[in-house]
């Protein structure tokens, strides 16, 4: 009898252990398959901690509204749905590829220089280059159409103020200008904290960045299922030949070298710096040149849409530094190498373009001395990590430079955050 009881006890204990063993085995197999299929394991594991990598936090009381599109905006949105070009030359993307997004406005002389730099980047043919246009400018379109060194997809912001010459989000009849008094002028609009009314060409800076982020992560067929890192660069960022290999390595090192880092960067946060030149990895605040993060981080940013869209500053990066990053509950660091792999070279502001009356013109004929060390990956995996605990720059408490006080801009910005998650949000 005693023998029977002991046997039954052992059987019941075995039955309790079996599910745990099976769970461990299944988890290991899943990770093995994910690595084999090129899935970002870091992003996946983080997503489990926050309750799912594709979880989207939405305000159920907000009703998104998008402007009725102009004919040009409608035709451009149709182009957004075209497949990438050059797939015949580059039929397969590398399993561990990091997609690249280049966002541009209207500085063709700058764009040509950036494209020439990308042509010489090692590994560029392994990935997809997405070029996001703020408005439509024929010469910018022509330059991008000439790219032949990788898969390339163009997208055009269909709600860019540059596509609406006589209606919001462009210039609307009856809008207030400058420091107009709405009661005296009988005009429409909300002034910013400095008493200035909206300027469409200025607010398009922030609108484009936010529309692009929402579209790349949640709207495009080619990217909305991508859980790995995406690299973001601008039309005045010169990219070194080793940039892509360096960013791949940094993304792989981040879980072990800086598990609390939100991103990896190609360049120092100080755009005038070329790096320390140390034999050490660097951890510092996220810079705005060659920044790279994954879907889990995007979900954290997306959840702060209300703060992003209500902060009175027309600059997306200052908005992030002053209100979004501080609201995430921890220090938002980025991992980079000790030597820059990208350089910001623009002299003219993003929305000054080719207007000679602004007095901000250069011919874009800049030259960069590329040393041998810049032609190959120059980051060593076993380097130690140096952390900048305190840095200057914009931070929580900065009130913003203004330009973003009109309630219509804030509502359109919020609508971009909802347009791929709420049925009927599109104006189509």
Automatic annotation (TrEMBL):
It is an enzyme of class 2 (transferase). Coiled coil: none annotated. It is found in: Golgi apparatus membrane. Pathway: Protein modification; protein glycosylation. Its main location: Golgi. Mn(2+) binds at residues 236, 344. Substrate binds at residue 134. Its cofactor is Mn(2+). It catalyses: an N(4)-{beta-D-GlcNAc-(1->2)-alpha-D-Man-(1->3)-[alpha-D-Man-(1->6)]-beta-D-Man-(1->4)-beta-D-GlcNAc-(1->4)-beta-D-GlcNAc}-L-asparaginyl-[protein] + UDP-N-acetyl-alpha-D-glucosamine = N(4)-{beta-D-GlcNAc-(1->2)-alpha-D-Man-(1->3)-[beta-D-GlcNAc-(1->2)-alpha-D-Man-(1->6)]-beta-D-Man-(1->4)-beta-D-GlcNAc-(1->4)-beta-D-GlcNAc}-L-asparaginyl-[protein] + UDP + H(+). Its EC number is 2.4.1.143. The chain crosses the membrane at residues 16-35. Keywords: Disulfide bond, Glycoprotein, Glycosyltransferase, Golgi apparatus, Manganese, Membrane, Metal-binding, Signal-anchor, Transferase, Transmembrane, Transmembrane helix. Disulfide bonds join 176-187, 258-261, 309-413. InterPro entries: GlcNAc_II (IPR007754), Nucleotide-diphossugar_trans (IPR029044). GO terms for molecular function: alpha-1,6-mannosylglycoprotein 2-beta-N-acetylglucosaminyltransferase activity; metal ion binding. It comes from the Eukaryota. It is a single-pass type II membrane protein. GO terms for biological process: oligosaccharide biosynthetic process; protein N-linked glycosylation. One of its GO terms (cellular component) is Golgi stack. Belongs to the glycosyltransferase 16 (GT16) protein family. This is Alpha-1,6-mannosyl-glycoprotein 2-beta-N-acetylglucosaminyltransferase.
